[in-house]
């Protein structure tokens, strides 16, 4: 099974370039929704600033992480798709199978905890 771990803020992570962002945009086109940027006169008046809100809660999975997960999977080499994928939750499994058109297995709680410990997040 293919395991994907985000490097997060670990010390050797490089910042993405414009070319990286453009490539990611192409990879997830048609999968991730284009979410709106909204403004609020009320919030502007309360803060004395002009605020813009990127509404990632309107994304398919209801979270900004959806874009990153789709991009990470789409960027994998072709041979990584052969073994399938694992998801942490049943709802994520169902969404992933529909969107990726590949089988996805659900991890149990012990596997999730072990993975988080291995990557230093538990």
Question: How would you characterize this protein structure?
Answer:
With 122 residues, this protein is mainly α. It has two domains: 19-75, no CATH class; 79-122, no CATH class. Helices cover 40% and strands 8% of the residues. It has five helices and four strands; from the N terminus they run αβαβαβαβα. It has helices at residues 18-28, 41-47, 65-74, 90-100, 109-118, and strands spanning 37-38, 53-54, 85-87, 104-106. Strands 1-2 form a two-stranded antiparallel ribbon. The longest helix is centred in the N-terminal third of the chain and has 11 residues, at 18-28. It is globular and about 50 Å long. The model is unreliable at 1-11 (pLDDT under 50).
Q: What key phrases describe this protein's structure?
A:
single chain; 122 residues; mainly alpha; 2 domains; two-stranded antiparallel ribbon; two-stranded parallel sheet; 40% helix; disordered N terminus
Order of helices and strands: HEHEHEHEH
- The number of helical runs is 5
Radius of gyration: 17 Å
Taken together, the total number of domains comes to: 2
The level of helicity is: 40-55%
Number of DSSP strand runs = 4
Structural class: mainly alpha
- What portion of the residues fall into strands of 2 or more residues? 5-15%
Give the overall silhouette: globular
The largest β sheet comes out as: 2 strands, antiparallel
The strands making up the biggest β-sheet line up spatially as 1-2
Q: Please, what is the average pLDDT? A: 79
Described by its quaternary structure, the protein is single chain
The low-pLDDT segments are 1-11
Distance between the termini: 21 Å
């Amino acid at each position: 099974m293919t395991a994907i771990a985000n490097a997060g803020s670990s010390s050797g992570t490089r910042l993405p370039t414009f070319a990286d962002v453009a490539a990611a945009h192409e990879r997830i086109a048609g999968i991730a929704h284009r979410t709106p940027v909204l403004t609020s006169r009320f919030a502007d008046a309360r803060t004395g600033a002009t605020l813009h809100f990127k509404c990632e809660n309107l994304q398919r999975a209801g979270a900004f992480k959806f874009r990153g997960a789709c991009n990470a999977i789409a960027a994998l080499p072709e041979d990584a798709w052969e073994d399938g994928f694992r998801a942490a939750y049943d709802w994520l499994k169902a969404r992933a199978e529909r969107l990726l058109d590949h089988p996805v297995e659900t991890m149990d709680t012990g596997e999730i905890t072990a993975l988080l410990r291995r990557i230093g997040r538990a």
